[in-house]
Write a structure and sequence with these properties.
CATH class of the largest domain: Alpha Beta
Number of helices: 13
Helix content: 25-40%
CATH topology of the largest domain: Spore Coat Polysaccharide Biosynthesis Protein SpsA, Chain A
Order of helices and strands: EHEHEHEEHEEHEHHEHHHHHH
Number of strands: 9
Radius of gyration: 19 Å
Strand content: 15-25%
Structural class: alpha/beta
Length: 301
């Protein structure tokens, strides 16, 4: 038998809510991993479509739970609480892992014992699972994550249970960027490491939260997240030194979310605040990208 420190158990949570069209692909992508010591837990967050029947009929060896609808974060927190792996991760029900994903990421974490999380490059696919492009994620820098307010990990990331127990789960009060909030808390316990290989598929489709307008409260989540970070005691001098730039970038993301949702006055307010905090932000490539995305006609696909 292989010792656990050589092949640690990996627990992956798939939260699903009315994703019957995609969830079986997500499940199969985990069950077909070349890495053998994987625990898969699927948490149905009160689906009203055919998801419950699909999960019940699937012959695969995985753990099934169902709860009253409480949101993605609550579903994943529940799943992690039921898990037993030394390494933890999650997979959105509309995304997929490549067959070698867990094997490669576990190997990367074994080579970087100081790292608390490892994340791979990934592919973007469309509603019909057609390849769109490959995303080469940036190498990890704490400055990018915090000062640039840039969510570096995408699908396929794994993190250490020992650190998760200190950090806690996802904030159930956040709906748009709970992952960013989690990563900002996690990075205070150690660095992340990048696996420079596409090992997951991120699906873009009309039902995705990432590509849909949101209400004003959700558009202000970046400000709540960055303010929460800077209310934390014991922050390092470098993190404290990035405060103005980090808050400016949070304002820019909030402004983009307002503008993308048609609230153009709030877009101007948030971008104006960003410019006051960090004048260079107003002429950054990020700002150009935000503006172009807002003015581009919305796809109906």
């Amino acid at each position: 038998m292989v010792a656990s420190n050589i092949m640690p158990k990996v627990s992956i949570i798939i939260p699903t809510y009315n994703t019957g069209r995609y969830v079986l692909d997500a499940i199969d992508s985990v069950l077909q991993q070349t890495y053998q010591n994987v625990e898969l837990i699927v948490v149905d967050d009160g689906s009203s479509d055919n998801t419950p029947e699909l999960l019940a009929q699937h012959p695969g060896n995985f753990i099934r739970h169902r709860q009253a609808n409480a949101g993605q974060s609550a579903a994943m927190n529940f799943g992690w609480q039921q898990s037993s792996g030394e390494l933890l991760g999650y997979l959105s029900a509309d995304d997929r892992l490549h067959p070698r994903a867990v094997e490669a990421i576990v190997a990367a974490m074994a080579k970087a014992p100081e790292a608390v999380l490892a994340y791979p490059d990934f592919c973007v696919i469309d509603e019909g699972s057609r390849y769109v492009r490959t995303v080469q994620t940036p190498d990890y820098e704490e400055r990018l994550l915090i000062a640039n307010f840039q969510c570096l990990p995408g699908p396929g990331a794994l993190f250490r249970r020992s650190v998760w127990e200190k950090v806690g789960g996802w904030n159930t009060g956040l709906r748009n960027i709970p992952d960013m909030d989690f990563f900002l808390r996690l990075c205070q316990y150690g660095p992340f490491t990048r696996v420079a290989e596409p090992l997951a598929d991120f699906r873009i489709h009309s039902g995705s939260t990432t590509y849909n307008p949101c209400n004003a409260e959700r558009s202000d989540e970046p400000l709540r997240v960055i303010n929460s970070l800077y209310q934390t005691s014991g922050l390092s001098p470098s993190i404290l030194g990035w405060k103005r730039k980090a808050v400016a970038n949070a304002h820019m993301l909030s402004g983009f979310m307002h503008g993308f949702s048609g609230r153009y006055a709030m877009f101007m307010v948030r971008m104006g605040k960003a410019a006051l905090l960090d004048p260079s932000s107003i002429i950054s490539r990020k700002m150009v990208s935000y503006v172009l995305t807002i003015v581009r006609p919305k796809s109906k696909a």
